[in-house]
Design a protein that fits this description.
Layout: H1 9-27, H2 32-50, H3 58-80, H4 84-111, H5 117-144, E1 149-150, H6 157-172, E2 181-182, H7 185-239
Antiparallel strand pairs: 1-2
C-alpha cells in the first residue's frame, strides 16, 4: 500500500503519463528514425517520472526502479539492434510496471482516509493507466495474431500502438466511433472487458470518494458536537 503521507506523488505519475500519451502522435509524424528515437526517450522519461508514484512500501519502490531501469536499458539496446525478443521483453516490462503502479494507486485511492488533491489526481491517473495497459494488451494480440483489428492504417509496431492507444480510450469511454474495430475473438473479448472495467471503475470511484467525504464530514461534525458536551459535564462535576 502506498504511503498516504507522500503528498504530490501522483502529480509525477500524471506528468509521466501525459508525456507518454502526447509523445506518440507528435513524434510518429516525424521521420521514422527521429520518431522512434524520440519515442524511446519519451518512454524513458515517463518511467522515471512514474516510478515516484511507487514510493511507499520499500519493496514496491525498489521493484519499480528495477523495472524502469530494465525498460530504459532495453530501449537503448533496441535502438542499436532491432530484434523481436527485445521488443516483447520491453512490452512485457512496461505492462508489468504500469500494472504494479495501477495496483498500488488503486489501494490508495479506493481505501485512503482523506480526500485531497493528490488523491483526486490519483483517480485520473488510474483511469489513464487502465487505457494504457489495455492498449499494450491490444498491441500484443495484434502482434501474435495479425489482423485482429480492422481499420489500422499503420504498419510499424510503434505506429500501430499509437492507433491502439486511441482505440483503447475510445473503448474505455464507450464512445465507439467504429473507425477501428476488433474482428477476432480475443480482441473482441479484451474490448468489451475494457468497456466494462471503465464503467465499473467510474461507478465505484465516485461512490467511494463520496462515501469517504461523507464519513469524514460526519466524523468531524461529531467531534465538534461532542466537545462542548464534554466541557459542560466537566464543569458540572467541578461545581458539585
Amino acid at each position: 500500500m502506498i504511503n498516504r503521507d507522500n503528498h504530490g506523488n501522483y502529480l509525477f505519475l500524471l506528468g509521466g503519463l501525459a508525456i507518454l500519451l502526447i509523445s506518440y502522435p507528435i513524434f510518429l509524424i516525424r521521420s521514422e528514425i527521429f520518431g522512434v528515437i524520440s519515442l524511446h526517450v519519451a518512454t524513458s522519461i515517463t518511467l522515471i517520472l512514474s516510478v515516484w508514484s511507487l514510493v511507499g512500501k520499500k519493496k514496491s519502490f525498489i521493484f519499480g526502479i528495477v523495472l524502469a531501469g530494465f525498460s530504459i536499458l532495453i530501449n537503448l539496446v533496441e535502438l542499436q539492434f532491432e530484434h523481436q525478443l527485445l521488443m516483447f521483453t520491453r512490452i512485457a516490462i512496461q505492462f508489468l510496471f504500469f500494472s504494479l503502479t495501477l495496483w498500488i494507486a488503486l489501494g490508495h485511492v479506493m481505501f485512503g482516509d482523506r480526500i485531497d488533491l493528490n488523491r483526486i489526481v490519483g483517480t485520473i491517473c488510474i483511469y489513464l493507466l487502465i487505457g494504457i495497459i489495455w492498449s499494450i494488451a491490444y498491441s500484443v494480440v495484434d502482434i501474435i495474431d495479425p489482423g485482429s483489428f480492422r481499420g489500422l492504417n499503420a504498419t510499424a509496431i510503434d505506429e500501430k500502438h499509437s492507433e491502439l492507444i486511441y482505440f483503447s480510450f475510445v473503448t474505455l469511454t464507450t464512445l465507439g466511433y467504429g473507425d477501428i474495430a476488433p474482428i477476432k475473438p480475443i480482441a473482441r473479448t479484451l474490448a468489451y472487458f475494457e468497456a466494462i472495467a471503465g464503467q465499473f471503475y467510474l461507478a465505484v470511484m465516485v461512490a467511494g470518494l463520496v462515501g469517504a467525504h461523507i464519513a469524514r464530514s460526519y466524523t468531524i461534525n461529531t467531534a465538534n458536537t461532542d466537545a462542548p458536551r464534554t466541557d459542560s459535564v466537566t464543569n458540572e462535576i467541578k461545581h458539585d
